[in-house]
Amino acid sequence: MLSPLDGPAKQDVVSVDNITVVEVKVDATPMVDRKVVSLQADGKFRVYFGDGTNIPNAALLLSDGIKQPKDTLRSYEAGGAQQVFVLSDTGASINVTIVERA
């Protein structure tokens, strides 16, 4: 269960396709004191938690990533050091709203 959050938050919308894996972050680097990432998109997409050694490829996200349906808001526990990646699960580009919360 998620603990109450009282810190700052950052929010942005990024365009994601089904070819290029995108790391979930609002700025150039993830929020250092981030505890939760909330994601919502206007299309189906995949969420993948990285192992910190390299950026996964699109095939890995499509086969092993967590499926997230269109227009659903989900929150994932993910500290600033935890890499989180997204990839469109459709043939078109989609817009993913990212919220990093501390």
What report would you give on this structure?
- It is a single chain.
- The chain has one helix and eight strands.
- It has 102 residues and is mostly beta strands.
- It has a single domain, classed as Jelly Rolls.
- The strands form two sheets. A four-stranded antiparallel sheet has the order 1-8-3-6, with no helix packed on it. Strands 2-7-4-5 form a four-stranded antiparallel sheet, covered by helices on one side.
- The longest helix has 7 residues.
- The radius of gyration is 13 Å and the shape is globular.
What best-fitting shape do the alpha-carbon axes yield? globular
Structural class: mainly beta
What is the average of the pLDDT values?
94
Q: Predict the CATH topology.
A: Jelly Rolls
| CATH domain class name | Mainly Beta
The spatial strand order of the largest sheet comes to 1-8-3-6
H/E topology pattern: EEEEHEEEE
Number of distinct helices: 1
**What would you say the CATH architecture is?**
Sandwich
Structure in a nutshell:
This protein has 102 residues and is mainly beta. It has one helix spanning 58-64; strands at residues 9-16, 22-23, 36-41, 45-49, 66-68, 74-77, 84-88, 94-101.
